[in-house]
Amino acid sequence: MRTEPWRQHEEHVDVSVHEVTAEVADLRTAIGDLESLVAVLSQRHESDRSIGPVDAADMAEAIEASRIITAANRIADATVAESRAEADELLVAARAKSFEVVGVARELAEAELVAERDRVAAATESWNAHRSEIRRHLASLAVSLDQFRTELAATGAAIEAALEGLADGGPGGGVGHADVVSAGPEPVGSVGISLVGSLADLDGPPEDAVPVIVTLPDRRATG
């Protein structure tokens, strides 16, 4: 994309070349008019010579016109050469200016590219750190979940063992369908474990299943 200084410089070059071209065209037109006048005078001179002696005034006028034409041609050639040289200088300056503008634009683009690359690298590094933190958190959750499952399985196994122990107690040493097994009045500091489940494996039918509360003495209590 062209910058504003380069556009103004290019417009200035175009205007200068256009003005010089117009001046040269006007000069060429004037030279053409003079050449036409000389041609008319030459024809008149030839005609006068065929008729009689040439008038000195006409001869002087023809010589002056020839001199004017010669001078005009020289001026036109000099103007064209000067205009060409000026145009070449303007083009060289414009080319140098364009190189300067392109160089500045390239430096700006490279600076923006480096800044954007740094921003992307910083964002990537931040995301990698955040992703590592998420992975560590998920791994910790997985360990906690495994521990919970292990403890849950142990608790289920303990409950199953307690239920099997209750079922294997028999009529003499176990519990009945609606008995509450207790070691007597609940001592201070005792720990109560409530086992609520369906005692379908006992002697009674499934509809007679009742909750069983087992109260164990606290071994840590001291007298």
Structure classification: mainly alpha
Report on the biggest sheet. Answer: 2 strands, antiparallel
Radius of gyration: 59 Å
Strand percent estimate: under 5%
Strand order of the largest sheet: 1-2
Number of domains: 2
Low-pLDDT residue intervals, each spanning 5 or more residues: 170-223
| Counted beta strands | 2
Helix content: over 70%
Report the total helices. Answer: 3
What's the overall geometry? Answer: rod-shaped
Order of helical and strand elements? HHHEE
- Give me the oligomer status: single chain
Instruction: Return the average pLDDT rounded to an integer.
Output: 70
Give the N-terminus to C-terminus distance in angstroms: 97 Å
Detailed description of the structure:
The protein has 223 residues and is mainly alpha-helical. It folds into two domains: 4-130; 171-223, no CATH class. 74% of the residues lie in helices and 4% in strands. The protein has three helices and two strands. It has a two-stranded antiparallel sheet. α1 (4-51) runs antiparallel to α2 (56-167). The longest helix has 112 residues, at 56-167. The relative contact order is 0.06. Residues 170-223 have low confidence and may be disordered.
